Structures are given as structure tokens and as C-alpha cells.
Amino acid sequence: SIVVLGSTNMDLVVYVPRAPALGETVTGRSFRTVPGGKGANQAVAAARAGGEVAMIGAVGADGFGTQLRATLEHCAVDTDLLRTSEGPSGTAHVVVDDEGGNAIVVVPGANGTVTSLTHGDEALIGTADTLLLQLELPLSVVVEGAVTARRLGVRTVLTPAPTQALPPELLAATDLLVPNEHEAAALTGLTDPREAAQALLRDVPEVVVTLGAAGSLYAVRGAEPVAVPAPRVRAVDTTGAGDTFVGALAVALGEGRPAPEALAWAQTAAALSVRREGASTSMPYRVEIEAAFRS
Ligand code: ADP
After folding, report:
1. For the domain bounded by 2-7+38-58+69-83+112-294, which CATH number is listed?
2. What digits encode the pLDDT tens for the residues 269-280?
3. Catalytic site residues?
């Protein structure tokens, strides 16, 4: 099974002709709320891809928290260890203009209260084959989660987003690092993804650099990086593509598929998600992934 130690956020999205400058008021075209957060998105992606998934994190004691928890439960994600903390849920305030450009303010809220693991969290991690981690919870608990999983023999998969420097203890406890090309460049100072992947192999044994429509690059120590092309699709909305990819990848690896095949399967899932609008709402179900993968 898969455990996600990560964030839940309510995305509050406004669509405007153009974003306001400081001190200015503009009239928006529309508004919507979308359940998100990288942790919750990866949990939903993995559950829809057929994984047995549990989520460790926190929602706030507000209406958003109720909705965020319900969204996960609706996707059959186990939320027994998802805390409800005092105060507001995490929120992402997103302004999207007519050119598709965006400006985002993230307020961690409840996510910021997850500072350490409980005995129950540790026991749950010990039952899993894979722990999925991102960087939207306090770094202290991300490190603790990775170190705990490593000690218990559980595979750790880290999405290094949002970009920040990674402490050595975290890298030392990471089995598979999955940056996109921008994150890979930020972590290494190398803009060529092949070179960046090779450099990251000094710190972790396995790296996947995602390359958007170009697919991904798989690198393991002692071999040349392998490029895995993505299926060609008409992209409508690529938000959440990376999280869909990681969730599906965890499922495929957990089923014992060899890495290149697992990558191709995860890319099939991600490609299906970019053909539809939304992040978690656009994530494909296992039957859809299987059908597209075979064709
Ligand atoms: P992120 O969403 O984190 O920025 P990427 O943009 O690299 O990450 O996308 C992650 C994965 O999603 C890619 O490796 C690819 O498999 C898939 N993907 C993203 N955009 C497209 C696209 N336009 N067409 C097909 N697949 C895509």
C-alpha cells in the first residue's frame, strides 16, 4: 500500500481579464474552489490508479477542511490519520488572467501544524510499501517521515516541490527523487536535464526528471539515463500532471513493474489528465489508464 505524508489545500481560483496591481481593484469573470495540495493530489491520483492509499497530514477546523477530507474519502483514501487542527485549512489563492498567466499566494494553515509524526503515523508507514513525500509540509516532518520509512524498509519517493534546498538527511533517506525539469535545474544549477539527473545521482540512487509534453528521463546509478517519451495528446490543462504521474508511478512500482514500464504507465495516466480541465478532478481511473496503455 501507499502512504502519502503531505499537504491538503483548498485552491481559491479567480479568472480575471488581467491581474490587479497593488492598490487596484478589478472585476473578475468567475470564481471556483478546487480541492488540491500536492499531497492530496498524489493521494487521489494513486487511489484512482488502483492503489490502496492512506494520507497523513492535516485539514483545518473549517468548511474547507470538511470538504477536503470528504474529497479524499470519496476517492477511497484512508483519512484515519489525517488530523483536524484548530484554525484554517491550507489555501492557495490563485489569480488566472486571460493569457493563462497566474499569480498564487499559498497560506499553509493546517499544513503548518504537522510538525512531527505520532506513533500511529509511524505504525501506518511501517505497513506500506511506498511513502510519497513533497515539500508543502514543514521540512522537519518531511525529513522525519523519510528517515522513518527508510528505517522500516519502506520505499521513499520525494517530489522536491515547491523548490527549496534539500537537507542532506532528507536526500540520504530518499530512494527515488522526481523533480520536473525546472526543479532539477534549481537543485543542481544545470539546465540540461541529463546532466542534472546525473548530478542528482550523487545524492540519491534513482531519479526521474519529468519533461512535460516531452515525457521523462529515468536515471539510475551505473547506467546512461533513459528517455521515455510521453503519449501525444492535445493538452487542455496541465495542472496536476506531475502529481498524477507520481501517484500512478507509485502504484506501478508497488505492483513490481520494472522502472521503464512503470514510467510509461504513469505517463499514460498523466497524459490522460492533461486532456481534461482541473487537477484532481481530471485524474484518470485505472480502467482508463489500462485501456490507453494497451492501445
Ligand atoms: P509538473 O506538472 O510537475 O510541472 P511536468 O510538466 O513535467 O510536471 O509533467 C509531468 C508529466 O506529465 C510528464 O512527465 C508527462 O508524462 C505528463 N505531461 C505533462 N504535460 C504533458 C503534455 N502536454 N502531453 C503529454 N503528457 C504530458
Report:
1. 3.40.1190.20
2. 999 999 887 667
3. 243
